[in-house]
Write a structure and sequence with these properties.
This protein is α/β, with parallel strands linked by helices. Helices cover 36% and strands 25% of the residues. A six-stranded mixed beta sheet has the order 2-1-3-4-5-6. It binds inosine 5'-triphosphate.
């Protein structure tokens, strides 16, 4: 197949606008002019229960592929992510979105009261298509859970997550820094690099 000139068209399936915005910004900054991202929040994904984000993302992607005409895009992308807190044996992990809705940051901080091991990692798995194949790329950023929420930028757990090597939360540090070092940035850049080299090779 001949090399397709111009931008690669991506369909990103997510109901989370913050996630979508970050992915768009990461791609625009790291690969200027290379991708055109369409976002769909309407396609329902199958979200299985598993400890493994890669498995969750791949199965969600395959469930989406059954519902769409994938030929319209160079790649269809789904991202699954979560915050894994060491002292809580990885909780909330794949249940991060649900847990935040139910008990909020205050609930998480309560579970961490008196806990000296505050280590935690954000993880992301980006599942994507290249022609008829489905692949997955993963990313991780580790740090510690703050004693109380700080900052107003970012989303989700960002006000209580302090990345390693910094003294402030992601919500204080802001998206410029977050999008350079985040779990999502690492995973999406790997997927984007794979897409660019695989599609160029054809
Ligand atoms: P979609 O499945 O539709 O993409 P979602 O928000 O339900 O949206 P996930 O199931 O992957 O997505 O849940 C990820 C949750 O983990 C997210 O809602 C946040 O609570 C948390 N999370 C993941 N990455 C985060 C980040 O960069 N900053 C803050 N919280 C994050």
């Amino acid at each position: 197949m001949a090399h397709r000139p111009g931008r690669l068209r991506i369909l990103l399936v997510t109901g989370n606008r913050n996630k979508a915005r970050e992915i768009e910004e990461i791609l625009a900054e790291s690969f200027p002019g290379a991708f055109e991202v369409e976002i769909s929040g309407d396609i329902e994904k199958l979200e299985i229960q598993s400890e493994d984000l890669a498995e969750i993302a791949l199965i969600a992607l395959r469930s989406v592929l059954k519902k769409i005409d994938r030929g319209k895009w160079d790649s269809v992308v789904v991202e699954d992510s979560g915050l894994f807190i060491e002292a809580l044996k990885g909780f909330p992990g794949p249940y991060s979105s649900y847990v935040l809705r139910k008990i909020g940051l205050e609930g998480i901080l309560k579970l961490m009261e008196g806990e000296s091991n505050r280590r935690a990692c954000y993880r992301a798995a980006v599942a994507y298509t290249i022609d008829n194949e489905t692949r997955v790329a993963e990313g991780e950023v580790c740090g510690v859970i703050a004693e109380k929420p700080r900052g107003s930028r970012g989303f989700g757990y960002d006000p209580i997550f302090i990345p390693e090597g910094y003294g402030e939360t992601f919500a204080q540090l802001g998206e410029g820094l977050k999008n350079r070092i985040s779990h999502r940035a690492i995973a999406i850049r790997k997927a984007a690099q794979d897409l660019l080299s695989s599609i160029k090779r054809q």
